Predict the structure.
Amino acid sequence: MRNLINFLLKYNNLIVFLILESIAFYLLGTSNKYHNSRLVNGIRGITAGIEKKAKNIRTYFVLRDINQSLATENIELRNRIEQLEKKEGQTIFYVSDSIKKQQYKYYSAEVIDNSINRQKNYFTLDKGRNDGITTDMAVTSGDAVAGVIVGCSESFSVGMSVLNLDFRLSARIRSNGYFGSLSWDGRDYSHALLSEIPQHITINPGDTIETTGFSAIFPEGILIGIISDYERTGSDFYKINVLLMTDFRKLHFVNVIGNLKKTEQLELEKQFQ
Amino acid sequence: MINKILRFGLVFVLLILFQVLLFNNIQFSGYVNPYVYILFILLLPIELADWLLLVLSFLTGLIIDIFSGSLGMHTASTVLAGFSRPYVLQIISPRDGYEPGSEPSMINYGFRWFVIYTLILVLIHHTTLFYLEVFRLSDFFRTLLRVLLSTLFSSAIILLIEYYRKGR
């Protein structure tokens, strides 16, 4: 017994160190898995208040940019209305088809916390479960992809940004329809990598990259970015550098898109796997 | 004693606010992310009991983690830095040893001593932090570059702050 006490006294720092370090690694391990969903529920509530205040101040400095982007979006929407009205005028009759129900539902939200300087970046939105947001919803900024919701609390939600080493998205080249997988390599906040595009097709820098509808998260045809350059690797696939359309430094207002038929699609797909 | 506790409390709050509101938003070509809050661990009195140093490191890391939404990462690296501080102090101790009751600051032990002290501890902290963040060994050397550049940058800011304190 005395030996034990002596031992403990002699190595008490090491023991305290080991205990604290194992708590840290326990937190690291568990929070990695359900990552932010746990965090959101517990602690985000406390820090969100401070973040919101800081965000309020920061927003003042970029009001001009926000206004500009809202104005451009407005003009675009107005143009679209114009086009639709013209079309509507030409149709002779309109069949209301009740089988084709609405598939995607849009919510708007504000980004209250965002980072671009880590290897695994997340952003926090000011809408949560109470506003109808659930996990696995798509997040877009303007017309372009921004991320995916990974965790929700009552009034906040956390999205995994495209700028996250764990982010994967099925993407295709608009001009020829070849699809591959989009990921981020952790280097530059304005570029992502498109892989799995076979080398027998020709690629032009400037081509548009958009989402495929394969994942049941993003609707088809949402902008991701344009090809800035590419290189041939040793394998059969290109390594394509994509200039992201979304400026993640200026992420303020985003749309959250929910797929109302996601469960239906996933259940059907499950039968064949 | 109370005075000291109050002063360190103030330093603690200030450093955390600086880190969360200012330095967490600094991004320089994806390679430089300064983590300056570690200065709190550097400044604690030399004779502070080791277990208390560890507990304080744990709390500092935990609070930064809560604010940056990365539970465990900063905690683990700050605790490691706190654990290695007594050994670092031992290795780089000046010839006549440390004055009883003193703090490891530039005023007490000189510029050169403080630079070495800062660089070693910041390097330990950043190495753990960046490798835990990436959590994979692919891109090993790129992470190493990030560690080294960020270490230099954080140390530079810490030295600036410390220099300012010395001037006052």
Summary: Chain B has seven helices and no strands. Helices of chain B lie at 2-22, 39-43, 50-68, 73-91, 106-109, 111-134, 140-167.
